[in-house]
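re: ur question from the group chat, yeah i did fold both. here u go
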Amino acid sequence: MNPRREAKLNQAKSSQAIAETLRADICLNRGIEDGMLHEVALAQRFGVSRTPIRQALQRLAYERMITVKSGVGSVITPLEDATRADDIRAAVAIIEAAAKCAPSHPVPPMHFMSIVGILGMMDICELNRAEDLFDIRARLLAALADMIENPILSDAFRAAYWRLIRWSILDLATAPEHQAAHLRELLQSAARTMKTATLAEGFAQIAVIEGRLSQPS
């Protein structure tokens, strides 16, 4: 492989891995004391140049995980009660769009098994722990995004669904049983639908269940 091309690929992988770590930090509210992400400190933390750090921050800004303020830096975007319903409705709307664009043929076995595998993980996780809930939710996001053939729609889904995940984790502190029950119902319903119906119907069912999160328990 051309050395320059290999370097670009390694950098892309590095920025993606950095974004994944920072995303988890933000969702789980860990290790970010002043609510800001500083490029120099992050470059030192991950042992990379500032270029992949900037790429990771750009991705997080697109997902509204952070807000880049001129002269200030990258500030974690807070969750505000006034935007809760709109945030969740936006994610649900994109899931509904995915349902409309999904193929009408039976769900490929690999997609069905990915949901079943995540459902099985729930039996060995403690969903009252934010880390476990985050892990299951993140795996579900990745699985669903892989099922969306349109790359633009898939990317929009990822961005909007991360916002929904942040709300789920925030709500875990006050309603752990509700969040666990909601996630189990979501996965069980999705698995049943995808086993016997189409991918479009599976996404439509997911949209219905996730829409219930628009009102706090």
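okk and heres the other one u asked abt
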Amino acid sequence: MESTSYDTYYEYGTAAERWDRAQLFFDAKEYMTAARILDGLVAEVPEQVAPRLLLARTYYHSARLAKAEAELRAVLERDPVEPYARLMLGRTLERQGRRAEAATQLRMASALAGEFTELTAPAFDGTHDAT
């Protein structure tokens, strides 16, 4: 298949230039274009979390929820304690109507972020001996 200038635009420049370009398109809510650029970056550097997270966000915002879920699970495979990926996965699962799975991810995201308000551990009020 012959490449057109339209096709090569997404591959043009260094990884840093493409990252900047993808962020600009994301900020402009041009999610499909941002995803196209990020697809190439993720293929080039699959071990990096940031491009995958932004790609997942582009998929989420463009309602491609299965793709968002796949990218978020790939991030969590590499970094299981990434709180933002857990939060996004929970929100993605909610949008898919998978509430029980979403609740688990959202609880883990809260715990990883240091928000323990949803946990049911008894509070220490100082009236009992801790020994």
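fwiw on the second one: The first helix runs from residue 5 to 9. The helical segments are 5-9, 15-27, 31-44, 49-61, 65-78, 83-95, 99-112. idk if thats what u expected
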